[in-house]
Specification:
The chain has 163 residues and is an alpha/beta fold. Helices cover 26% and strands 34% of the residues. The chain is globular.
Length: 163
């Protein structure tokens, strides 16, 4: 089940999505949004093929009337950004959750990463993190050249713009 919370922060509307984006998700109420809109995707845990179709339709609708950004994209949404070329529409990915793993103790955690910071370093590396359990440097648990493809696409077509 997908739930969302809508917050107004200054001129920006922030929509925080939580749950599973699938055939049960009715995104039609979000088509009424206008102006500057940010979707916080940190709570999206899974996206089905039907959910992808519904999301793309929402992005198409909002592309005409909104300036859309995606923030704190969960690994599930990053997967779709990498697989589906029009998943983000014209939206800019401002930040994403990077899954890290400790090679020593196996600890895992997701870290919020700023897209502009990654692109400034060439776009194929994430900031270093230390394990909170054993202080060993952590590694991205995905191959950077696969996990960060969406940033290369964004940089090539439409550079990241900060508000």
């Amino acid at each position: 089940m997908l739930r969302w919370q809508v917050l107004k922060v200054g001129l920006r509307t922030i929509v925080a999505l939580n749950g599973v984006l699938d055939e049960n998700a009715d995104l039609r109420p979000l088509t009424e949004l206008s102006g500057e809109v940010s979707f916080d995707l940190s709570g999206v845990r899974r996206i089905s093929s039907t959910g992808v179709r519904e999301w793309i339709e929402l992005m198409r609708h909002l592309d005409r009337r909104c300036r859309v950004s995606l923030v704190a994209c969960s690994p599930a949404s990053v997967t779709q950004l990498n697989l589906i070329s029009n998943f983000r529409g014209r939206a800019q990915v401002e930040s994403f959750m990077a899954p890290y793993e400790c090679p020593t103790c196996g600890a895992e955690r997701e870290v919020l990463v700023d897209s502009v910071t990654v692109l400034r370093t060439g776009g194929l590396s994430v900031p270093p993190q230390s394990c909170g359990d054993c202080a060993t440097p952590m590694e991205l648990s995905e191959l950077p050249e696969r996990y960060l493809v969406f940033l290369m696409d964004q940089r090539g077509g439409r550079p990241v713009a900060r508000a």
